[in-house]
Design goal:
By secondary structure, the chain is an all-alpha fold. It is built from 14 helices and no strands. It is globular. It comes from Novosphingobium capsulatum.
Length: 229
């Protein structure tokens, strides 16, 4: 288990309110870690997310070590733009499309049909894979969402079957379903093991399907490790 008291002291010293310095893991300390990761003071949304996440992180063993908790904060901070966006809007520029999907978009010209057309883009890049049916809106309906950007009909079906969580709840930013879905996914991909081995490249490949965002996740991990003991 992380040293909660020292973590609370570090958060307080950095001007992020963790609540009483009592060594007890809970929603307010979790919200302060989210706020610190995001680089802004906790608002109502972050406080609600902290309350929802705290017991789930504890049950999933994520607060057992600083490396596990910091990596989760780094991954989720990156995937949500600092806990601001919980549904992938797919409104990508040509340059972003070529960076994220280099095999699909090798020229600027190939991106033009999808600039400013997020639904069409989602159905093109996510259609006919990850459980999405060809010729449907599955790519759009099952685009990235939640704290770890769950993607694809197969993933959302797994969340519904295992937890009763829906894509609408995830895309809507409902904190309790998002927290449960995140920790369920973290367990299914055995993310704690990656963290324990220090295989952060392997974990990024597992989460992202590639290495997009690897450096940003690393930067965010280091930030959180600065306050977690």
């Amino acid at each position: 288990m992380i040293d909660v008291r020292k973590t609370q002291q570090a958060l307080a010293a950095a001007s992020y309110d963790p609540g009483p310095i009592d060594g007890q893991w809970g929603g307010k300390t979790c919200a302060a870690l989210l706020a610190h990761q995001a680089g802004r003071q906790a608002d109502d949304a972050l406080r609600a997310l902290g309350v929802a996440l705290a017991p789930e992180l504890l049950a999933a063993g994520i607060v057992d070590t600083p490396q596990r908790l910091a990596e989760l904060l780094g991954q989720t901070g990156n995937e949500t733009g600092g806990y601001k966006a919980f549904a992938e809007n797919m409104n990508y520029s040509s340059a972003a499309m070529m960076r994220v999907w280099p095999t699909r978009f090798q020229t600027v010209e190939s991106t033009r049909p999808y600039v400013g057309k997020p639904q069409a883009l989602a159905n093109y890049v996510y259609g006919s894979r990850m459980g999405n049916r060809p010729g449907t809106d599955d790519g759009w309906l099952h685009r990235g969402g939640g704290l770890i950007q769950h993607t694809g009909a197969a993933e959302y079906q797994a969340l519904f079957d295992r937890l009763g969580v829906t894509s609408e709840q995830i895309h809507g930013g409902d904190p309790v379903p998002m927290a449960r879905a995140l920790c369920d996914y973290w367990g299914r991909v055995k993310a704690n093991g990656y963290c324990d081995r220090g295989d952060f490249v392997g974990l990024r490949k597992r989460v992202n399907g590639g290495l997009v965002g690897l450096d940003e996740v690393a930067r965010r991990r280091v930030r959180s490790l600065g306050v977690i003991s």
